[in-house]
């Protein structure tokens, strides 16, 4: 029996999955929580305070994932490393690391360990918004076609905004860095010794286009003369297609992860994108929702359409031969985590503890019998800004309709409904611009565990929802690409389509919309759209003014 391994690097942890290539059977899994988690208040020294909107991580945590989880899955399954023919990784993006030429992150150097700019800027680092605004303004003037592929607006989460922030605020570190690299590509570098920039991250997070390449030198020079040669100096003009072999495990990589030198390593991928073939999606019309701390919405199309507010359309960006569309909501599970940490009375916690259940389960129980609209509460799901379709990290959350009789569980349900309305807004926008969404497939922890939420989503979107067969779709997708990197001659597959036929699956569970619920949700969605446009499209910029005051007072 031959095996492949997928390693999924998420926001708070990394996971390795050992899979039988022939059947897709998941043999063993191991998870390593990041030692430093997300650093959004202080650096590891506990003294260096971070400004608002920063989100950093420590790259040593990623190496710990490789060192602990891969040997663990091999040991659990008693599998000989010689029988593992391929490995591939996926990562949140854009997650950017400044490194030396040999791959050493700047934060590993003693002289920079207390400098925030030396660390990983996580995907949800939003402090580069001023730079993103300037990129958008110039792109509208110089390169509007390129900008239109990203819904008309580049995010502060993306590579060039973060790179420019580094240059503006810490030019000495920018100069010291030989490369600025996506964390997924860095992991491949650590495993193989070869720098290989993947087309998925380059296309969706760095404005790269299969036909046009990166933006021109003239564009970057207009932004800032110091950026004129950023591609040649800090990135790499070479971009490699998904499904290809990035290289083989080196001697150093073998010592790091426990696999044998010569094991095939696939090109890195973005976590959400790699889950698409793991859900069996290899043709247009079926949207995958990867539901976790945030939600990513992935869709294939036959042609390149300009869809406002989406995160991008990239040729061959998900599956070769199709245009891959991405949209997303930057706060979903994070909403619920924030709520239970900050808005729950002691009596609820005592009840949950006495019954031996989670506070999440208690809240769902208390509100599960409530009818749509019964609480009279509506929420805008922008606690972490809006990714799609407004692409605006300066927006913030909102509850409407509260009274002195409002209960915590009603607010909790309103947050769930708000995220469902946000997903419907994304679907409606795709369809308005002739990219059909016929069926929804959900993956991730929320899809696996929360029946009430999935039924609400079906009712709100008025579409059937299937559940991905794997509870670890991202890791499975990476394992599939690892099998493709190995190729058929080594016991893998020659294409991701072949891998999907044999390794992907869906559960038998189907959530179908309940017509009477959908009718009420149509009314609530109409109100959501009014608030969405009022606060999100410039009629009332109250949220941005409040954020500006916050920044001034925290300076």
What would your notes on this structure say?
With about 550 residues, the protein is an alpha/beta fold. Strands 1, 2, 3, 5, 9, 10 and 11 form a seven-stranded mixed sheet that branches. Strand 2 and strand 3 (about 25-35) form a beta hairpin. Helix 2 (about 130-140) crosses helix 4 (about 160-170), helix 15 (about 410-430) packs across helix 17 and helix 17 packs across helix 20. The termini are far apart. The mean pLDDT is about 95.
Secondary structure topology:
Layout: E1 3-9, E2 13-20, E3 26-33, E4 56-57, H1 59-77, E5 84-91, E6 96-99, E7 120-121, H2 129-142, H3 144-148, H4 159-169, H5 171-176, E8 179-182, H6 183-192, H7 199-205, H8 217-223, H9 230-234, E9 245-248, H10 251-257, E10 264-266, E11 269-270, H11 271-278, E12 286-291, E13 295-301, E14 312-315, E15 323-329, H12 333-342, H13 346-355, H14 359-367, E16 378-380, E17 398-400, H15 408-432, E18 439-443, H16 445-449, H17 451-461, E19 465-468, H18 473-486, H19 496-503, E20 506-511, H20 515-536, H21 542-554
Parallel strand pairs: 1-5, 5-10, 5-11, 12-18, 18-19
Antiparallel strand pairs: 1-2, 2-3, 4-7, 6-8, 9-10, 12-13, 13-15, 14-15, 16-17, 19-20
Helix pairs in contact: 2-4, 11-18, 14-15, 15-17, 17-20, 18-19
